[in-house]
Amino acid sequence: MEISLIIQSIIIISILIAIGAFFSKTFSYNEHTRKMFISLIVNVAMPCIILSSIFQVDLNRETFKLIAFVFLISIFINLLGIGLGWGLANIFKKNSKKKRELAILSGLGNTGFIGIPLCAALIGPKGALFAAIFDAGVDFTIWTVGVFILQKKGSFTFQTLKAMVNIPTAAIVVGIVVAFFNIKPPHLLIQVTEQLAGMAAPLAMFYIGVLIMTLKRAKVRESSQQVWIPILVKLIIMPLVVALLIHIFSVEKEITQTLLIQSMMPSLTLATILFSKYSADEELGTVTTVLSTIISLSTIPIMFYFIN
């Protein structure tokens, strides 16, 4: 993959984030606007990227095997990142009460908001499909291991299982079933999904730009004592580990590129929502998400260049 394409994509992402930050002053950011952004991205744009990618890719038995492989390797990579974050937090922040949050922020990346659109732009429909499957692995890890870690009682309930059933996951299942039975969707439906899929990247970047403008300097200074752990693990250590794994286990080119891109993604944007739901430090989630996103604009092309 050409480094120039990576740099061009990062520049576009930076511009979109800057636009979001600039126009955040033109409206009131509150719980309602936050929900609107997330609902449009998660429930409309992301499923359409997934469906649009599946509609454009010829799925056969070999492709289904690759899909299963990407899903399982995604879970493995996520768990490895969580383990590394937990280990570093125990070594360097023994007395911190935020070890659970730091572990999750270290292992789970922004593979949906940024990863899928970036893979779609750089690799094409097949890359977007594999990126969506990787993101499904992240979702699975969030609502199983992530919730188990955050829950003080440490139990897995029916509500946890219910939370795993979401529209992007449903889009993956429906798309694969449609492809498996070789059902050809109407041309109008394909066009609609393609149009709506184009919303994903701009909306996600606008949302991150708005988040940047909501940060308070005092909270950033307070969190900076700890956020270096997930940023180091997520942006530096994990891409190198994934590159080593890919070197050992030779896999298809599109999967190699997808795994590398997804492993370089900044910390999970939904961490703030997840932490809020389970009474964890949601402000730490916001600060880490924003700082890791800003820093990733530099580390992604640097890591690609280094790995190449």
UniProtKB/TrEMBL annotation:
Segments crossing the lipid bilayer: 6-24, 36-55, 67-90, 102-123, 129-151, 163-183, 195-215, 227-249, 287-307
GO terms for biological process, alphabetical: transmembrane transport
Cell compartments where the protein resides: Cell membrane
Major localization listed first in the record, in broad terms: membrane
Keywords recorded for this protein, A-Z: Cell membrane, Membrane, Transmembrane, Transmembrane helix, Transport
Gene Ontology CC entries for this record: plasma membrane
Bilayer disposition of the protein: Multi-pass membrane protein
Superkingdom, natural source: Bacteria
Homology family: Belongs to the auxin efflux carrier (TC 2.A.69) family.
Name this polypeptide is given: Permease
Organism: Neobacillus mesonae
